[in-house]
């Protein structure tokens, strides 16, 4: 896939996320492969259930109260979007 707006290739933010997962994923309880994460992020038509679960899990690890129904609003509230 060529680098585009919908691709993780060449995106420095994706490199940072991959580095974080490689270094802290086990400690944070985030067990996802980089190719799987890339596939979930590049699917701009659907929010993959596992991607939502990763966000919810990380927000809860940051001591935020997050419900499954309002996780996207929680990301906005803490300034991640």
TrEMBL record:
GO terms for cellular component: RSF complex. One of its GO terms (molecular function) is histone binding. GO terms for biological process: negative regulation of DNA-templated transcription. Signal peptide: none annotated. InterPro entries: Rsf1-like (IPR028938). This is Remodeling and spacing factor 1. The lineage of its organism: Eukaryota, Metazoa, Ecdysozoa, Arthropoda, Chelicerata.
